[in-house]
Amino acid sequence: MGLSNIFNDLFIIFTLMFYMEKNLSNMEEKITIISEKTSIIA
To answer: Which residue range(s) make up the domain with 34?
Structure first.
């Protein structure tokens, strides 16, 4: 029971990391756009 939970958690973590790595460049673009908009407002 405990072992399968560990493998399940690892699978979820690796999946999240994979998606985050894929979306990292998109996130950076969004962050720069947001920071540019906020600097215009400020």
So the answer is: 1-42
CA distance 23 to 19: 6
18's tokens: 């994979």
Q: What is the DSSP letter of 41?
A: H
Domain count, the chain: 1
Q: Computed over its alpha carbons, how large is the radius of gyration of the chain? A: 17
DSSP-derived secondary structure letter, 42: -
User: Which DSSP category does 7 fall into?
Assistant: H
pLDDT attached to residue 14: 92
Model's pTM, two decimal places?
0.43
